[in-house]
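Problem 3 from the worked examples.
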Amino acid sequence: MSATVSYDVFDTVVTRAFAHPRDLYVHLGTKLGVPDALEFARIRWTVERDARKKLPIAEITFAGIYAELARQLAWDEATARAAQTLELEIEARHLHAVPLMREELFAARGEASRLIFLSDMYLPSAVLRAWLEREGIAATGDVLLVSGEENASKSSGALFHAARTAHGGDFAHWRHAGDHPFADVAKPRELGIAATHHTHGHLTPREWAARGTRAEFASVWRSLLAGAMRLARVERVFGSERDAVLWETGATVAGPLFYAFVRWTLAEAARRGVKRLYFLARDGQIFLRVAQAIQAAEPGVVECRYLHASRLLFAGPAELESPAALRLLAAPTGQFHSRRQTLLQLGLDETDWPTLFRTGDPDANLPPAEREALADWLLAPERRTLLQAALTRRATEARAYLHAEGVRAGEPIALVDTGWFGTIQRSLEHILGAPLTGFYLGLLPPGDRPTAGEALG
């Protein structure tokens, strides 16, 4: 006898962009233009919950929910129908396949020839099937049963019996998978069905934190953020734990953090009248891509550009005014620093002091004592003129590049970067002779060398 394979639907093979199904009702209330979207959501959920309590199958139809909702809100037939249609449109727009399940479904369909999808759901099967086919989940010949139409639920076990009666199969040769610990695991196992518990659709602690509450309803934007984190997390199947952890970190930590930072930056820039944002290389590259994705969905008034900026290119002129800063430039305390890097930091190279390159490896890491000795020699008063000329020359070249890119004093522009102290902004302000505005992820207090303009973090 061939195997029978069935799957739960929501949070198993598809999931919503909303973190929790009930959060959709808040969005629905907003779209309907009701005075209090949260109160509307409470009424919508209460109607559904109370209706389930009255029925022995613990389910109700979509039409039944809206008949009761219309009665409580004193809606006429046209208003109720419009609200019902809008809810279906919102559900359709925010429903997505779980990509990591596609391979499993393909293999299961080859084993069982067709799949059975079972859902404790009030939505009509015709509507749900269209969504499943759109998402590439259900194929021609697959079976879909929903509790609201069958007068039977998975939780009671009756929906499994209904599927067996209508489409055949033997519980002893039946496999089911789903996310609910009772309806999809305990109950089918009680019937003799082999059941697998899939939890990928459940929110992780970080996703719950993004939703902002474990209460009945969350604000729409927070729910969509947490839902987007989940959608990104379930995007792929990984062959190693390391790859899975890296992907989840990107989906649930770095991605939301970068998105929030860039969205704040775009909003603040628009509010301040900034016309162009310059995302500084290299850290700003991912921020620029996030900004482009946001603006593709929501065109804004702020132009976003990439600036090939390095601390090396712009460093030096500002440090000439501070002996301590100049010395730190010549003898940094980082883990690696060579003779060649020392000269480059100061706008010099081997053509200026070839003697420094005649012995030993100029690219070898210098121990702290040698860094300090080299800095003493380079920063001696007799070499001040040459040093100043080199840094002035580099500043002139940098200024020409900045002007060519539209970075000029008096322009309504701002910088975007990661960083702790606004070092590049301070260097650019010195080169341009004017204050700038910078948006930063990771800004620390400026200490004794603040930027001339605003550094916002």
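Problem 4, a separate protein:
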Amino acid sequence: MAFLPHLSRRRLLAMGATLPVAGAGITAVGTTADSAQDPVRPYGLDISPDFPFSKKSVDVQGSQIAYVDEGAGQPVLFLHGNPTSSYLWRNIIPYVTAGYRAVAPDMIGMGDSAKPDIGYTFLEHAAYIDGFIEALGLNDIILVIHDWGSAIGMRYARMNPGRVAAIAFMEAIVPPSLPVPGFDVMPKAMGDFFRMVRTDDGKDLILGKNFFVETVLPTMGVLRPMSASEMEAYRRPFPTRESRLPTLQWPREIPIGGNPAEATAEVLANGEWLYASDVPKLLFYAEPGSLAPKPVVEHMTTKLTNLETRFLGAGLHFLQEEHPHLIGQGLADWLRRI
């Protein structure tokens, strides 16, 4: 995932991080809600920690991709990002299964999918999702995408225009949020962090402390307290340093100053396609948001065609953990009308 644009040095320090000074690394201890603490109930609706689905699996490039496959009809393909899995969509999927086929894979190396010995670059992840779609024979796809899943989904849509019917997206990796011209134009805490991510200190933080699961997700990406059972579901796929490699490579793929070149080119190409395409689009956003703060939403509203927007309320990056029922209801309503 990309970092939060409003993230301040004070907030990083408050959550236990030591920011880089004269080449030092970042150390952090993650926090989570006490198991006895009740989750927030936005709009009076419970956010369930339960995952009421049985996963299937399919072979892609010699590795098993685990996925949810519920309902029947036109496929609605849910694509997650870092450091999540199909678990992110657990409260949203039931809103579409009455008339559609909801398909939600775990990215390669994440969730219950296999962990092959690959680099987990953007293009490697994209190739596995391309293969997954082919293996299931999905056509006339409605994409529901978030974080790095948005970049992968948009890439697939621009390269396979006859196979994608519509796109719903939230907290997406697309211009004008990304690419970023350079570390120095970012807020200092954020620039320092992303420089560090590409060093051995960053590797130790993310692989050793499971930083994206233990800290980014519950303390920087979600306003409500995450329950112990929710955290365990996100923690379970990454029990060892080696298993956490995807969560390290994803932030290293964020295009900053033209690097990495391949991810930068793909995100820019996605932006060109998105702003030129007339495919039906649905944007969910929150306040203050992370990748889609108010200026980004205003830009998209002005520049994108065939776009519908839905404001969810207060939220940061993982909006599915803040407002799953509003997303599900909005998605179901939009699907009936496109």
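Solution to problem 4. The mean pLDDT is 89. DSSP finds eleven helices and eight strands in the chain.
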